[in-house]
User: Which sequence fits this backbone?
């Protein structure tokens, strides 16, 4: 089972080398696809130096298109049997990879979500951000008759064939609800596992904003009724 780790990046010059080192230390990724989404802070220069070394492949967007567009570019480039999405902002810990991959290795799941709300250790911060996440997850459960605890998680792992005959359109943070809606409508087997979480706040560079929550609501409703 070959693993492709997809890392969407935008202005992460201070964290990109750290996250790459952490991913490589797990010795589980057969390829690491870093998609730079038009960074302007020096990230691109670093990535050009790292391209082709230690399993890293770099894809460059000439302008900023959004996280969803970067993830989709990474998916198109990925050659692995299993794909894992890894944010570059150090909120998610690659030491959780073994736990995330286990349900797929055991043949129990097609898709695994790393849940921030299943009791693993986490930094205590951003109450209203948590409330928004839980409300969006609750809405997902109502619309799609499921029992997820963390629809918005950045840790999504899935067999490559899950993408067969699936067209994704999201360019921004609406990737999470669109992908979730489409795998639920296709009845793929989904497992959730607990993950550690160290969120950064807006003063530290967190990019998702309140308007992204409204976009997620619309996305969940839209894809309940259309493809």
Assistant:
């Amino acid at each position: 089972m070959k693993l492709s780790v997809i890392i969407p990046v935008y202005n992460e010059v201070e964290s990109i080398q750290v996250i790459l080192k952490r991913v490589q230390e797990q010795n589980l990724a057969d390829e690491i696809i870093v998609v730079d989404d038009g960074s302007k802070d020096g990230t691109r220069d670093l990535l050009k130096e790292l391209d082709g070394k230690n399993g890293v492949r770099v894809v460059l967007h000439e302008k900023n298109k959004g996280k969803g567009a970067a993830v989709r570019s990474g998916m198109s480039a990925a050659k692995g049997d299993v794909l894992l999405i890894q944010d570059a902002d150090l909120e998610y810990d690659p030491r959780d990879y073994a736990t995330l991959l286990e349900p797929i290795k055991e043949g129990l799941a097609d898709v695994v979500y790393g849940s921030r709300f299943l009791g693993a250790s986490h930094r205590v911060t951003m109450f209203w951000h948590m409330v928004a996440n839980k409300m969006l997850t609750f809405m997902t459960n109502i619309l799609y008759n499921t029992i997820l605890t963390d629809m918005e998680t950045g840790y999504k792992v899935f067999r490559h064939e899950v993408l067969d005959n699936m067209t994704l359109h999201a360019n921004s943070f609406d990737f999470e609800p669109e992908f979730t809606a489409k795998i639920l409508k296709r009845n793929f087997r989904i497992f959730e596992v607990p993950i550690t979480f160290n969120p950064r706040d807006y003063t530290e560079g967190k990019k998702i904003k309140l308007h992204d929550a409204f976009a997620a609501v619309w996305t969940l409703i839209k894809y309940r009724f259309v493809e």
Observations:
- The chain has one domain: 3-225.
- The first strand starts at residue 3 and ends at 9.
- The helical segments are 16-25, 43-50, 67-77, 97-105, 127-144, 175-185, 210-225.
- The chain has a mean pLDDT of 93.
